[in-house]
Write a sequence for this structure.
């Protein structure tokens, strides 16, 4: 069961002016589920994206990058997004590229756009051909129900092994103008930074320059989706898209605007919530763990330690068992690959409890204290490397029987 | 259940002249199990060791290194080894060092040796103090039953979560003289190269120089224990010890001897068998997987790809389910971090079946073929990167419900 995560109320998801969403049940893999999503953007919208670094990246990812580059050059903006679940269209070679292109052409024709104004996204099983016909059959229905009010339906339409739909809204004032931000994400397994197996879409009606939007997406992804891991597997299809429909009537936000950081931080807050939601809904998750590493010489070594802890199946199964078998955390710190680490200096905390110092168990530590923290559904693991001022935070979940069940059964 | 691995017959384990083994039930953690082992070596024996690279390495590992260095300098050879299970004496700080030292002093006193002639080893739970009294109480019994015929009992005495005792013998001729090699290992979880959570002891009666023995251990470990992974966790206590009792009457083997490679290869063969046995008995293992990567530019990139595959929980759970969900393997190759990998050139084979080429599924591939291979207990995954002549092989096992059960319950 997801850890402290419930599906949002439809009414809590605020429409973003200029951004419409429509869905269909196209029987991509299973009957009676929304599995095709169309989003349309008002003319003049700015769109920015970051994508998986997996070299076996999927055909739609390659096409997204190409369409974003083409539309920037042709000054002919992105106007629609097309998402399907059930098939990742990854590991599909040249045929997969043609399939993704076909779906863009079809949607563009129906909407009166050029194909390069459409961004395609797929998520699901790898190494199987995209059933193009099913996607195309779903398009008329999806277009027919396009609406600014469809965020919850849209969040449901992009789910795969997710148990709970993930979406969130914020409202803020810029220059006295109300600005809306609404985003959604999906992802549950094959979750790792750079990035998770995830799709994320965040829209705002703010007036914001392309350069500022590009800066914001990189800032936000590094604080959010690049800080989560479920199983250490970086997927072929990860994509995060930030859209600004330019409808809110505020003075344009550029990178030098006094309000730049306000918008950036609000968008980042939504990104963090959506990223954490993926971990809370991690396959089989029963615990949500925040791994905070501080006192490092640089961020790189902090991340090495944080991910050594967050990836260790031994640690993740101990958390599942609520067993404060904390020596496993010391072992992970020890093999994280930090040069010349002085293990006698570092400190390990579980929640507020000092567990280890001077190279061993803290003298005041009692196992009951660790056991009490382990009972919680949200647990903080804090490591002070005591050799510098850098820090980082990573979110992950535990490793349960259900992780194995879900992944052993996923295709059946 | 271990994959194609049964406990050796006592009679199949050949005594090594000059090497005696004795055990005791010292109630280290559980009643009625052998948990303390003493080995003694004839005067003049050569001993070589390689140890974990974990920076949080255990007190006995630090002491082993120190004693090996001291005994080399004092030309006063290692004459005894002391192993306990139940407690790793790791993450125990200065107190842990004193505890390990105490056990060496006690055994040395009983055997009429100096403490630095004893190598200590511990395996078990991390972050708990070593119950020194229990170890000491076990020593007289262990010494009383010292015998060259005790290899199976010894292999049982070093087991922790192992289901099956791991030991093997070889006999060969050098200069017409019969040479015996017998070794044993333990390890089941927290298994990763550099090295596995493992203890390994291999003894031979061959006459061999210290330098040659040192060369052989590094060669052997790189072909064996450094090629296995169960869960990617490098332990605090890993140790492999190679001992040569110099009793066989052959002409001394040096690095330049014509027979050097014969002895090296025979010892390596035993090391490979013992290393593979650890994977076959991997916690919860139901499948034994050989991951072979070839056509790489260098060994480093081959290992990156092999370990990306061997560590992926998604791949390991798919193998557990006998589900040829092979896109997950392509995804792992894609995120392994190989620079400028051309995914359209590489080939992926499952057993003898070509699964992927040209960036996608091989046209002749049928899922039934993959499903048939997946039914086997031993499975070969072969990747041809098609960009060079380097290769590597890694052994691992699948990821089952039982892995979670064992590690969620280990301390209880």
């Amino acid at each position: 069961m997801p850890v402290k995560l419930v599906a949002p109320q439809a009414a809590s998801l605020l429409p973003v002016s200029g951004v419409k969403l429509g869905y269909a049940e196209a029987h991509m893999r299973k009957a009676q589920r929304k599995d095709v999503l169309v989003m349309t953007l008002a003319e003049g919208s700015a769109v920015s994206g970051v994508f998986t670094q997996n070299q076996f990246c999927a055909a739609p990812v390659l096409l997204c990058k190409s369409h974003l580059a083409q539309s920037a050059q042709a000054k002919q903006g992105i106007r629609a997004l097309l998402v399907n679940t059930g098939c990742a269209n990854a590991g599909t070679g040249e045929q997969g590229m043609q399939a993704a292109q076909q779906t863009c052409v079809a949607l563009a024709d129906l909407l009166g756009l050029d194909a390069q104004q459409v961004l395609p996204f797929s998520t699901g099983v790898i190494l199987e051909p995209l059933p193009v016909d099913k996607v195309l059959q779903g398009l008329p229905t999806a277009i027919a129900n396009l609406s600014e009010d469809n965020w919850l339906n849209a969040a449901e339409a992009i789910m795969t092994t997710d148990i709970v739909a993930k979406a969130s809204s914020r409202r803020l004032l810029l220059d006295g103008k109300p600005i809306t931000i609404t985003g959604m994400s999906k992802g549950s397994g094959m979750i790792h930074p750079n990035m998770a197996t995830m799709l994320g879409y965040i829209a705002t009606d703010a007036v914001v320059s392309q350069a500022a939007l590009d800066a914001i997406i990189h800032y936000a992804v590094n604080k959010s989706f690049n800080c989560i891991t479920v199983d250490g597997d970086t997927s072929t299809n990860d994509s995060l898209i930030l859209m600004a429909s330019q409808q809110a009537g505020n003075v344009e936000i550029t990178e030098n605007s006094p309000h730049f950081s306000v918008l950036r931080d609000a968008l980042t807050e939504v990104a963090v919530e959506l990223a954490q939601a993926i971990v809370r809904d991690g396959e089989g998750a029963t615990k949500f763990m925040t791994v905070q590493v501080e006192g490092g010489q640089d961020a790189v070594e902090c991340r090495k330690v944080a991910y050594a802890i967050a990836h260790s199946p031994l640690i993740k199964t101990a958390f599942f068992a609520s067993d404060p078998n904390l020596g496993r955390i010391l072992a992970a710190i020890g093999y994280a690959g930090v040069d010349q680490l002085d293990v006698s200096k570092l400190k390990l905390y579980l929640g507020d409890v000092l567990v280890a110092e001077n190279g061993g168990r803290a003298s005041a530590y009692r196992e009951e204290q660790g056991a009490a923290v382990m009972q919680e559904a949200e647990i903080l693991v804090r490591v002070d490397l005591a050799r510098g001022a850098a820090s980082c935070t990573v979110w992950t979940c535990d490793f349960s029987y259900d992780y194995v069940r879900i992944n052993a059964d996923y295709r059946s």
